[in-house]
């Protein structure tokens, strides 16, 4: 849009001068220029020239920021024409002019201006000056030397020497070049050229030095492009070919020639590289017979090219002989690697069939096992919980039984799913194959402890410790088991047997790793055996082993509680704990306390003890905790149900780390003191937002905590209808990727059909088809998890089909029997993961089923 | 990622000894202090191919975009190094200057091509 003129022609010269000055003061350079130009028309002989010149300069500077260098240059020229004496123009103008001349590409003018103003530029712009000097040096080589340059100017001498050096290099006159390089002063702006020419000479004899010389030229230098050529000269041939496309062809040819690569062979290679993949393989195979490359090395890249260029298979087989049946089926499978999972698995299944038909060799068995493992990996990649992967892993072990990682994967899988029986089987099988494997031995110890076979655990642990004497985990587990046994003996009134258990616990401990538990428990046994003095000594020892201080006393109190000590002893321990809080609170002591307390987070007494030492928490409130530390403190206080301190810590965390919504959760948890009945609508929405954010951040711990709090316990008095639903809402396509689209449809149909039947059983058949359809969709939106809703998003036809069952075009018989069509078995009902009743936030989460 | 066989410059039927020799040779040529990126690549290739079972698994199931450059590099014949003519030298310099960018603060920046 064209701007209106600022000043009107009726303004007097005085007005215009005042207006122009005002604009100058406001930084409105364009308007100031207009005002002064009008003034110039009215008073051609006035003394406004310097003002207009300054306005031009300022406006020019403004334009350079908009990269309008050409326009800026015109304004600078205008300013120059107004003020004949260059000294009156601000110093900035010179650099600005230099920049504009460089940017608009007027090397001659740039050189002339630079050489005229060199001294003043050097003084005014010492930071920018060296690079400009190098730029001028380069320009003096690519452009004629200005006539105005005095004969004795150092520029003339330097540039002459540089030109001669270049000419000597291009003639291949190495000796001449070396002496000419000596004439280029290291202090002259031609130093980079000197380094480049020297590096080019040293490429073959001293590549490291050549690289160092090239690296000494910084990126913003006008010579950096030349330095890059040196780097290209130092590259491997294959790497050099990789530069095609990113480096101008003539530069690469330049480099190739200097590297001694014949132009014909360079041309041939670049031509081949420019071919499309479909043409490349046949071309390569045709020409490769002339190359030095052996067939064995050529075969793999050629085979890989076959994946994308099936048409070249004939050429490939002509060159390398016919592909074996297994290779052909593998090729087909590799071609499907970007297809949907069912297709990929189908292709690899075909490959397995071909392999199985092949003769039985060790390599074939490996190949079979690897194919199974590959299929398992593909499945897990798509869905980490798909149990079909386990089938493939198990199958792979039939062909490759001693593949350790597979045993390990299977063990992790079963352990994560709490399938102790299968985990134990995997461990036993692995231990037979790897009897001295520390990982499996430890797993076996853990499984034995879980199965309450302590003697077996002990035997295995001893074996493990002969292999890995420092294994802390196994020692810790065995000590914990012995302590647990000792407590049982005490509760059964068999203190003498408890002594034995503690002696065994002590035998598993290393002196360096003692955490005081065993000594503390020994002290308790002494007390219970009425040997007060011995007990006190052992307790002091235990407290010391536990690191002393508050956390050690907390440990003693918690161990006492676990042991079921009489009230008098417990009071003594708790009293000692209270006294210890008097010490100085530091961030470290707080975190040690948190770590110790977390070990006892399941103990009821913990909350009381932490409340008893509330003063400690208050004192530590404003210490400079890291976010993770603050989170751990809140987690502990939440587990121990210490809602007062929790509220204070969460408030500090929320204030300090506004992006950490976890503190909102802890604050609200403290506010409602656990039970969620009284959560206000606003706070509930806030918590759902926190959960969404946690989901986005993959903060599964927080998501689970929120689910446990706001969903799991809720709706205790829900009607029976809701309880009859198979929660968690099953994902009908748990293994959807292996299913054909027809199977998928069938599964979705079955699920929806079952839901429809249950709705009708509860509420009866609605009066109209539309109401029923709407109700079905709303039900899904409100109750199903997003992943299931997503499945239905593009499956409106399936909803229609289900509704058709109840509202057919012909008169309906009414309700369709539940067993038709066959409904697949659902997992047993569980309250975990259940979705809340509909609320506006949740509606936002879910997808619109009508969108298709 | 490059094909590990191509990185080590070995055929897919290479045995343990060949793999090891190729690796040691390359590590000598590209030590980590000189070319850390290349070294990492070589190390990764060796880790993947050192064991015969892993090598087979890699050969069978990894199908990276084939790298034909090593093949083509073998096409490039060595001859006598020829320096560029003066005009070609100055052309490169001129183009390098043309890639310079000028900032309003008077600084120069070199634009990579």
Structure explained in plain terms:
The complex is a heterodimer of chains A (852) and B (113). With 852 residues, chain A is an all-alpha fold. Chain A has 46 helices and no strands. In chain A, helix 20 (341-357) runs antiparallel to helix 21, helix 26 runs antiparallel to helix 27 (472-491) and helix 33 crosses helix 36 (627-639). Chain B is mostly helical and 113 residues long. In chain B, strand 1 (100-102) and strand 2 (108-110) form a beta hairpin. The radius of gyration of chain B is 21 Å and the shape is elongated. The model of chain B has no long low-confidence stretch (mean pLDDT 84). The interface between A and B is large, with 95 and 62 residues.
Shape of chain B: elongated
Count of helix runs of chain B: 6
Largest interface: A-B, 95 and 62 residues
Q: Please report the number of helical segments of chain A.
A: 46
Instruction: Tell me the total number of β-strands of chain A.
Output: 0
End-to-end distance of chain B, in Å?
A: 23 Å
Assembly state of the chains shown = heterodimer
Give a quick precis of the structure.
Helix content of chain A is 69%, strand content 0%. By secondary structure, chain A is mostly helical. In chain A, helix 21 runs antiparallel to helix 22 (388-399) and helix 26 (454-467) packs antiparallel against helix 27 (472-491).
Which characteristics define this entry?
heterodimer, A: 852 residues, mainly alpha, 46 helices, disordered C terminus, B: 113 residues
Explain the layout of strands and helices:
The complex is a heterodimer of chains A (852) and B (113).
Chain A: H1 13-26, H2 29-42, H3 49-65, H4 69-82, H5 91-104, H6 107-124, H7 129-142, H8 154-171, H9 174-183, H10 191-202, H11 207-215, H12 224-233, H13 237-242, H14 249-259, H15 263-273, H16 277-287, H17 295-308, H18 313-320, H19 325-335, H20 341-357, H21 362-382, H22 388-399, H23 404-416, H24 420-433, H25 438-450, H26 454-467, H27 472-491, H28 495-508, H29 517-528, H30 532-545, H31 549-563, H32 567-580, H33 587-598, H34 605-612, H35 614-620, H36 627-639, H37 643-656, H38 662-672, H39 681-696, H40 700-712, H41 720-723, H42 741-763, H43 769-783, H44 786-793, H45 796-806, H46 840-845
Chain B: H1 4-8, H2 16-29, H3 36-49, H4 52-61, H5 69-73, H6 86-98, E1 100-102, E2 108-110
Antiparallel strand pairs in B: 1-2
Helix pairs in contact in B: 2-3
């Amino acid at each position: 849009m064209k701007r209106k003129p600022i000043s009107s022609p009726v303004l007097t010269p005085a007005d215009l001068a005042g207006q122009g000055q005002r604009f100058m003061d406001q930084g409105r350079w364009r308007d100031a220029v207009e005002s002064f130009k009008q003034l110039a028309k009215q008073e051609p002989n006035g003394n406004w020239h310097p003002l207009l010149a300054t306005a031009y300069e300022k406006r020019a500077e403004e334009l350079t920021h908009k990269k309008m260098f050409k326009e800026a240059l015109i304004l600078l020229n205008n300013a120059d024409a107004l003020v004949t004496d260059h000294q009156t123009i601000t110093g900035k103008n010179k650099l600005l002019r230099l920049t504009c001349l460089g940017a608009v590409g007027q090397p001659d003018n740039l050189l002339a201006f630079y050489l005229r103003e060199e001294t003043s530029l050097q003084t005014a712009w010492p930071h920018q000056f060296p690079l400009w000097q190098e730029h001028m040096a380069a320009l003096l080589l690519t452009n004629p030397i200005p006539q105005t340059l005095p004969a004795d100017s150092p520029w003339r001498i330097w540039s002459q020497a540089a030109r001669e050096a270049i000419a000597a290099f291009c003639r291949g006159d190495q000796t001449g070049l070396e002496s000419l390089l000596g004439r280029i002063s290291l202090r002259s702006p031609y130093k980079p050229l000197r380094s480049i020419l020297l590096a080019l000479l040293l490429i073959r004899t001293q590549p490291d030095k050549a690289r160092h010389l090239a690296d000494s030229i910084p990126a913003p230098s006008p010579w950096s492009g030349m330095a890059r050529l040196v780097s290209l000269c130092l590259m491997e041939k294959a790497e050099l070919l990789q530069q095609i496309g990113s480096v101008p062809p003539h530069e690469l040819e330049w480099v190739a020639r200097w590297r001694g690569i014949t132009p014909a062979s360079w041309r041939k290679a670049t031509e081949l590289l420019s071919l499309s993949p479909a043409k490349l393989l046949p071309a390569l195979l045709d020409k490769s017979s002339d190359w030095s490359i052996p067939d064995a090395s050529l075969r793999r890249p050629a085979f890989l090219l076959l994946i994308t260029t099936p048409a070249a298979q004939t050429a490939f087989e002509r060159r390398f002989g016919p592909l074996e049946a297994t290779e052909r089926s593998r090729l087909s499978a590799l071609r499907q690697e970007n297809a949907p999972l069912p297709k990929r698995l189908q292709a690899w299944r075909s490959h397995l069939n071909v392999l199985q038909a092949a003769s039985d060799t060790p390599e074939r068995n490996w190949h079979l096992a690897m194919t199974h493992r590959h299929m398992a990996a593909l499945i897990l990649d798509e869905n980490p919980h798909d149990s079909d992967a386990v089938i493939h892993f198990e199958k792979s072990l039939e062909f490759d039984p001693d593949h350790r990682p597979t045993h390990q994967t299977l063990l992790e899988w079963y352990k994560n799913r709490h399938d102790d029986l299968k985990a134990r089987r995997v461990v036993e099988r692995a231990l037979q194959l790897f009897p001295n494997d520390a990982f499996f031995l430890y797993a076996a110890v853990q499984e034995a402890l879980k199965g309450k076979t302590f003697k077996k655990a002990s035997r295995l642990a001893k074996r493990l410790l002969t292999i890995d004497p420092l294994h802390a985990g196994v020692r810790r587990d065995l000590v914990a088991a012995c302590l647990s046994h000792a407590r049982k003996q005490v509760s059964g009134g068999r203190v003498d047997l408890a002594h034995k258990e503690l002696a065994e616990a002590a035998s598993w401990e290393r002196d360096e790793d003692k955490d005081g538990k065993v000594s503390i428990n020994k002290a308790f046994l002494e007390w219970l055996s009425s040997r007060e003095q011995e007990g006190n000594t052992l307790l002091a020892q235990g407290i010391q082993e536990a690191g002393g201080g508050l956390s050690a006393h907390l440990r003693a109190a918690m161990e006492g509680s676990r042991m079921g000590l009489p009230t008098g002893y417990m009071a003594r321990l708790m009293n000692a704990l209270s006294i210890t809080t008097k010490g100085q609170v530091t961030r470290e002591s707080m975190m040690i306390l948190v770590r110790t307390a977390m070990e006892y987070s399941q103990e009821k007494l913990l909350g009381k003890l932490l409340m008893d030492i509330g003063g400690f928490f208050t004192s530590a409130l404003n210490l400079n905790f890291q976010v993770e530390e603050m989170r751990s403190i809140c987690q502990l206080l939440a587990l121990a149900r210490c809602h007062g301190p929790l509220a204070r810590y969460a408030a500090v965390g929320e204030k300090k780390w506004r992006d950490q919504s976890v503190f909102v959760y802890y604050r609200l948890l403290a506010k409602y003191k656990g039970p969620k009945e009284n959560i206000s609508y606003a706070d509930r929405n806030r918590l759902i937002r926190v959960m969404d954010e946690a989901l986005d951040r993959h903060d599964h711990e927080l998501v689970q905590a929120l689910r446990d709090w706001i969903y799991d316990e809720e709706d205790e008095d829900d009607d029976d209808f809701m309880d009859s639903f198979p929660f968690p809402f099953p994902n009908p396509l748990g293994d959807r990727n292996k299913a054909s689209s027809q199977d998928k449809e069938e599964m979705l149909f079955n699920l929806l059909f079952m839901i429809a039947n249950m709705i009708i059983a509860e509420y009866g058949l609605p009066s109209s088809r539309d109401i029923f359809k709407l109700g079905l969709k709303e039900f899904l939106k409100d109750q199903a998890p997003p992943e299931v809703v997503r499945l239905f998003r593009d499956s409106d036809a399936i909803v229609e089909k289900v509704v058709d069952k109840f509202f057919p075009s012909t008169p309906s018989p009414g309700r369709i029997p539940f067993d038709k069509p066959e409904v697949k078995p659902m997992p047993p009902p569980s309250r975990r993961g259940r979705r809340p009743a509909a609320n506006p936030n949740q509606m936002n989460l879910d997808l619109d089923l009508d969108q298709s | 990622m490059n094909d590990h066989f191509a990185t080590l410059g070995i055929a897919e039927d290479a045995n343990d000894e060949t793999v090891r020799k190729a690796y040691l040779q390359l590590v000598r040529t590209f030590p980590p202090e000189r070319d850390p990126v290349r070294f990492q690549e070589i190390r990764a290739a060796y880790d993947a191919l050192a064991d015969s079972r892993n090598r087979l698994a890699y050969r069978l199931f990894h199908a990276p975009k084939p790298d034909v450059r090593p093949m083509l590099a073998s096409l490039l014949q060595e001859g006598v190094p020829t320096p560029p003519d003066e005009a070609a030298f100055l052309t490169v310099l001129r183009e390098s200057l043309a890639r310079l960018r000028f900032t309003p603060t008077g600084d120069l920046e070199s634009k990579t091509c």
